[in-house]
């Protein structure tokens, strides 16, 4: 893997969340906003928790999100800010569907095909997922809804795995 590819993934998955959180810091730390509900939900991945062959950049970035989450939770809790992360497993999206040769993403003038190849049998095998299927976007959204609701008012600095029971 080139350093350029490594850096690009780090910028997308680490620098962007950091910059978004940093942009809120002055507003959220203002004592006038103490009573306001303030919640940060970062997106990690099981790759950040367990590693992923061929994805050293992505796994490193997603592990970094967990460190960012825990640090913001520790430092900003006194300002009424809760910060958590969700480590998603296989969620059925266009990024995890088999590649479509007609659908490409262009980054820096380079065409990149999205999707996970059909021959990635180990990854596509659902036998180690307790619920026996990939997650849906509704499954993914449900965790976010919980973390953004008053039901999670005493939850901060944690990473919830949304995996259907894979990696138990």
TrEMBL record:
Database matches in SUPFAM superfamilies: NAD(P)-binding Rossmann-fold domains
Keyword Oxidoreductase on entry: yes
Pfam families per the UniProt record, alphabetical: adh_short_C2
UniProt keywords, alphabetically: NADP, Oxidoreductase
One of the record's GO molecular function terms: oxidoreductase activity, acting on the CH-OH group of donors, NAD or NADP as acceptor
Biological process per Gene Ontology, one example term: fatty acid biosynthetic process
InterPro entries referenced in this protein's UniProt entry, alphabetically: NAD(P)-bd_dom_sf, Sc_DH/Rdtase_CS, SDR_fam
Keyword Cell membrane: no
Top-rank taxon: Eukaryota
Family: Belongs to the short-chain dehydrogenases/reductases (SDR) family.
Protein's name in the database: Estradiol 17-beta-dehydrogenase 8
